[in-house]
Amino acid sequence: MARVKLISWNVNGLRAAGRKGFPEWLAREQADVVCVQETKAEPSQLPPELLSPPGYSAEFAWAGKKGYSGVGTYCRRAPKSVQKGMGVEEYDREGRVLIHRFPEFTLLNVYFPNGKQNAERLAFKMRFYADFHKFLRRLRKKGERLIVCGDVNTAHKEIDLARPKENAQVSGFLPEERAWIDGLLDDGFLDSFRVFEPGSGHYTWWDVFTRARERNVGWRIDYFFISEELRPHLASARIRPEVMGSDHCPIELSLKF
User: Fold this and answer.
1) Catalytic residue among 32, 92, 131, 151, which?
2) In this structure, is the dihedral angle defined by the CA atoms of residues 19, 205, 199 and 130, taken in order, positive or negative?
């Protein structure tokens, strides 16, 4: 039985992460697939060690706006196919979705929109949520077994952030945002981390300016969701707070086939 190790990490600038030891970390981890979000770069702007690290092939989706958004997926084995975007221009021009199809599963690497800037961006985020969920339903109807990973930009339950009451009216913990995750789980997806860890105090993002990471005052907003069909293959899911280099930390998923 083969084990597949996947990692997802919002690196908050791939070039910045490169200067903070990302290539060395990638080589040490030996993950089968590493998904990064908020890359803030086009491939032409990346040095060789980030564009084509030893042992990995890489694909990127990037925004038309310079230094904004973007995702990248590093693979140690070749996928059957790669798809950039959902086919919706208003989302795809922000470089938010990469889809890799492997024999065992389809992996969606997603940088979900942030709604904190203003009401317009919150509305954009909620449209993206709704359309992305419809997109997932279409893929499942085709028989695809799905893994969705990335920065979802929403904490699901009160245990998923250190200060839920203070943030009850803040984008990232609004009722309508949290309800979208409820809907995803009701539709046959699993929050893989919560299969193994029911407790509080586990976060993936901390505010840099208030040095919140030192006090573990954080939010769990990065996820590996898997469709119910993959439950028998779920081996482990964990958060990696010891890994530095971004305001987020990596999350990890292991599957057995």
Assistant:
1) 151
2) negative
